[in-house]
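ok posting inputs for the zinc ion job
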Amino acid sequence: MSLVSGPGRAVGSQADQTLCVPKHVEYIKNLDSRRDELEYWLTEHLRLNGVYWGLTALHLLASPEALPRAETIDFVLSCQHENGGFGAAPGHDAHLLYTVSAVQILVTLDAVDELEKRGLGGKQKVANYIAGLQDQATGSFKGDEWGELDTRFLYGAFNALSLLGLLDLVDVAKAVAYIQKCENLDGAYGVCPGAESHAGQVFTCVGALAIAGRLDLVDKDRLGGWLSERQLDNGGLNGRPEKLQDACYSWWVGASLAMIDRLHWIDGDKLAAYLLRCQDPAAGGFGDRPGNMVDVFHTHFAIAGLSLLKFEGVEEVDPIYCMPRAITMKTLHK
Ligand SMILES: [Zn+2]
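and the output
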């Protein structure tokens, strides 16, 4: 395949087809200084996830120091609950998805030991909170004590527990069997058994199988075919048939293809050119589609997508964990 990286290799022919790294770094750094803006308060429920997206994007842009380390760790710890889990922001209820973000941030900052020093019960308590969300009957996971089962939660639990070195707290075999039940005839996966195939769910199911060391269970050619059909003529990717393209699907689809060694089944040059059209070259950040408002979620996943494509100037991402490869290699001793 023709990848977009390599010295002297430009993507597309237009002058605006460059990655505006300093603008994106500034955009992410300034997110937290915009507390007077309505958007900040509307997204309070996403705060801890937002820190994970911003921090990871900055690492991939080779600017790991752009967010203050000590304040970031303080904020993460301030979101922890007595039950060991983490909420979106201080005073919010604990939820699996925020707990995963907390673990990913602490691992990225090499600060897991802060859980032992200043956290409420150390990493074992965090892991016990996550493990307690496994549904004993099905092997899948809930997002919180009241929630429904969703393969997003199963993946998140595997992600965080494996980063903490405590995946053996849960019944991995039972969870793997549940994922197999979510596989459809097209080779892709849905949110629960019998549900329509969706690229976001493909990422979570394949990612969980990768962490469990069971990618042998994936029908790679069939799934690769379904995933590669997600690319549209404009180069962008959609999440399921008949839907519009969206920059974040460069991650859900691209990382899934990378995990099953089929990333070369899509046109990487066209995808990279699409993603670059989604950036705001003046103010920084990426939107879901060209000309749309930017946000930290799409900024993170667009940059991670460019990383999968080995775009020049972007650090390597781990397609299983959506974290810098150098950090997961060190943490997991891969
Ligand atoms: Zn999106």
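notes: The pocket of zinc ion is lined by residues 246, 248, 288, 298 (CB under 6 Å). DSSP finds 15 helices and two strands in the chain.
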